[in-house]
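Notes, p. 3: input format for complexes.
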Amino acid sequence: MAARIIDGKTLAAQVKARVRDGVEDCKRQGVEPCLAVLLVGDDPASAVYVRGKARDCEECGIRSLVERLPADTTQEALLVRLAQLAADDSVHGILVQLPLPAHIDERAVIKAIPPEKDVDGFTPVNVGRMMIGETCFLPCTPAGCMEMLDAAGVDPAGKRAVVIGRSNIVGKPAAMLLLARNATVTICHSRTKNLAKICAEADILVAAVGRPKFVTVDMIKPGAAVIDVGINRDENGKLCGDVDFAAAAEKAGCITPVPGGVGLMTRAMLMVNTLQAARNTL
Ligand code: NAD
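Output follows (282 residues plus nicotinamide-adenine-dinucleotide):
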């Protein structure tokens, strides 16, 4: 039987509509939510992402400040600008588009974002709060994955969940959020042995590897919920995820497509976090 498709486009539109209402409410109370996005250098993919974020802000009624800094911006200059944005009460969310040019220490830059404006959920304080289940800004991609599971009616409690990938921005936090919802979680990575077998036992499979069609149909348990985080190009240059979608959709219970899946929810969750950051100042 064919899997249900978890449609990121519809879901993201619903989330953004809710944010729009919340933004209106915030404005009525005298606060205009504002997101500052810093882009250093001219990486074309990053430029596309930043444009998308500005469009989302516009759609939600959030003011966006996009600042493009030259590739040779020094770390010191970037930290100075971040300190100004940190001190600016009219700015609620601050996001530094990654990756940064090689001469800049990404961690030092992330640490310079005040936790209350860290709408990406990347600062050590927010990561720590997430670990111990305190209120915090959740990283947008894993938070989007959880929304998609909820929308599909998949309750992680008691289920076997497998996350492939252990990055700080996707794999690790995705595993943590599944654990917080009482799944039994396994994290697989590049050194994992018997990966296919482990995946085939998963009721919930989250793929965040970055390799086209890495997850083949034999790695999917019949009826599993499959969340495909990957954004790759296939051999024909077409956008695709980490999962061999056509085959997987015949076996899974529900599955997210690429494009039209987690990527759109990631963007929507950034809007949720920015609204929350503004609300927190009311
Ligand atoms: P990353 O490169 O930081 O991490 C990839 C992970 O995959 C690593 O932890 C590594 O251990 C694991 N891995 C690599 N090869 C493996 C193998 N052969 N077997 C098992 N595990 C292996 O990447 P990331 O930032 O976590 O992103 C992962 C993918 O998700 C990429 O395609 C990226 O473009 C995409 N992504 C999508 C969104 C979105 O909004 N949809 C957001 C962030 C990242």
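The longest strand covers residues 34-40.
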